[in-house]
Amino acid sequence: MSGKLFRPYLMVAPAITVFILFFIYPIFYMVFLSFTDWDLISPVKNFVGFDNFIDLFREDEFRQVFMNTIIYTVLTVGISMVLSLLFALWLNKSGAFYGMAQGAVFSPYIISLVSVSLLWLWLMDPQYGFLNFLLKLVGLPANTWVAHPDTALYSLVIVSVWKITGYNTLVFIAGLQSIPKELYEAAKLDQANKWRIFSKITVPMLSPTIFFLLVINTIASFQVFDTVKIMTQGGPVNSTNMLVFYIYEYGFDFFKIGYASAAGVVLLLLVGVMTIFHFKLLSKRVHYR
């Protein structure tokens, strides 16, 4: 009897151990390091209290990085969600063409982010890029894209939207296909127009899918790193520097582990607050059948 009682705990023990070692412990260790001035080389970790956090919020550079991350997240999540829903409404049909179109839309998501960044870096080249070639063909002036502070951040948004839209689209299609057809048939019998059907049936029934995508896309956008590292290195003039790249830069380029850990704690709190905000504000609007 005692063996059966402890068997479930033994079964989950490996997963719990991995979770504690690679998720819980690093978080607590990062919080501890944020109160020190450790430089990654010296074995001494001097306790400095809240000095790292005070220095963090005094820095104009950090405030700019913080705002860059917020703007990038809002634009990336907002644009990708809208485009994905429009694509899903269009592609939610049977047939060989729509199956091929779904595969084409989804394909950017399965490509390595490094490859995607290098591809778009070539496409956005100010002198030889294909995008500027297309702009010249239609008589529009060439764009500087990632080479200018005014356009660099929005160029990264374009890349991220192109990358994530396919995944969101397929999730939306799955949500649309789970909506009972009887609801649409009843609405047509009541002579409801397309907008009323969309706003009163489609959106409420898709609300769990919308909520799920909103949360995971927000968290992923706050953690952007590869695109920044490969395409801009945080420049020009710090215009594309994001929180994760900022933490990496101060931790492994400048060897200010305590300062970088403080920035990591801020990022952790920011993601946590945003996630709680989504659950508190939006979960009540989610309709589960």
User: How much strand content do the residues show?
Assistant: under 5%
* Poorly predicted residue ranges: none
Structural Rg: 23 Å
Chain-averaged pLDDT:
89
Terminal CA distance reads 40 Å
Give the tally of β-strands.
0
Q: Under CATH, the topology is which? A: MetI-like fold
Backbone shape? globular
User: How many DSSP helices?
Assistant: 12
What is the H level of CATH, i.e. the homologous superfamily? MetI-like
Give a quick account of the main beta sheet: strands, pairing sense, barrel closure: none
CATH class: Mainly Alpha
Order of helices and strands: HHHHHHHHHHHH
Can you walk through the features of this model?
InterPro entries: ABC_transporter_permease, MetI-like, MetI-like_sf. This is Carbohydrate ABC transporter permease. Residues 66-278 form the ABC transmembrane type-1 domain. It holds the Pfam family BPD_transp_1. The structure is a single chain. This protein is mostly helical and 289 residues long. It has a single domain (59-285), classed as MetI-like fold. It has 12 helices and no strands. Helix 2 (51-58) packs across helix 12 (257-282) and helix 3 packs antiparallel against helix 9 (194-222).
